[in-house]
Amino acid sequence: MADQTEDQRGAADAYARELAAFADALHVLHVDRGSPSYREIAAAAGAAGRVSLSSSAISEAISGKRLPSLNFTLELVRQLAGADQGVREQWRERWKRVKLHQRQASAYRKQSGARNKIPGGPDQPLLRSDQEVLSAARFEAERIVKDAQAEAESIIEAARIQADEMTASATLILLDATERGTTPVAARLQMREHCRIALVGPPGSGKGTQSVFLGKLLEVPVLHIGELFRTNIRGRTPLGQRAYEYMNRGELVPNEVTLGMLESRLQGPDTRHGFILDGIPRNRNQAEAVDELLARNSEKIDAALNFEVERDESFRRLVGRRICKNDSSHVAHIMLRPPQKPGICDICGGPLYLRDDDSRKVIAMRWDVWKTQSESVVQKYGAERRLVTVSGIGTVSSVTERAMSALNAYFG
């Protein structure tokens, strides 16, 4: 019975996650459309004469209170995203996915309800009608298990396909870089004695994405401050324990702890010929502290690579981003790189979610912090003639090529 209750709860949770992801995607469409009033949307649909969209029903759909009908969904998407057939088909499949979870959750509820209606205790003989109810419930449960097994096999196969596609994509990017001249530029930069680079730029400018490619092309490690925190906390180092205590209290981790982690990491032999800093420095004080830290070994940041993007582009990138709960390196985007199955990671089949940091409210706060604190880091490096600025707009490979060319020109 405990397992059955757990299955019921799991089905309900899965449906809730799928419905939330569905509503979230509708919300993004609504914002991208310019956030027209629900009355305006309803009036436009009424004028078209296809499906009636009431303001209250639109509100319930976008807020995730209920799953609308398929026809309602397709008409709402038409009003928000246009009449593109491909987009409508994507939403049709997305709706089917949520509907499947809704049916599974409903089946478990009915199954549980049927059990609860059985009269008497466990030793009392069942009436024929009760036996029929149990038989139907078992049949439905077996069907759900088979569906789940098929779903799992499908996810595994999709993960294999996705892995192959990622490998092929990485190969194409490398070939593209070779043809366009990035690899020769990288070879010239690799001939330098060292390349110590700090990545700067506003939220959503692509620093994390570019750090991976730049690190491989320059053959230097990427020192991401978030990863340093995770490594030290997992390893229960003294600095990690101190950081955890501050974080557990909801307080900011002092610079001395953060810089202590960085100093320890810089002692690794792989940083001898350079590194890429991502996530630090975040303000002018940190930038000056990093300078002092490196100066102890007669080293310095050779260049600060600044990726420029407009605020609207940053919001578009971050609000649509979804992170896999199983592995945070698995990232999807509901518009730019939508998962094959809404709310499900293409790579491992884990649930996708919107990070708190990627909500509109938090992004706006991060931009305010950037303008008041982090932008001064750009100004500092600029005044010291150590700043290299490139546009962060375009494909990953084009931005990488742009960054490598700019660094090559900077170093001469």
In short:
The chain is α/β, with parallel strands linked by helices. It contains 15 helices and eight strands.
General description of the model:
The protein is an alpha/beta fold and 412 residues long. The protein contains 15 helices and eight strands. The chain has helices at 2-32, 38-48, 55-63, 70-81, 85-116, 128-180, 182-190, 207-218, 225-234, 238-248, 255-266, 284-295, 311-319, 360-383, 396-411, and strands spanning 195-200, 222-224, 274-278, 303-308, 321-324, 331-333, 352-353, 387-391. The chain has a five-stranded parallel beta sheet, with helices on both faces. The chain has a three-stranded antiparallel beta sheet with strand order 6-5-7. Strand 5 and strand 6 form a beta hairpin. Helix 2 crosses helix 3 and helix 4 packs antiparallel against helix 5. The longest helix has 53 residues, at 128-180. The model is unreliable at 114-128 (pLDDT under 50).
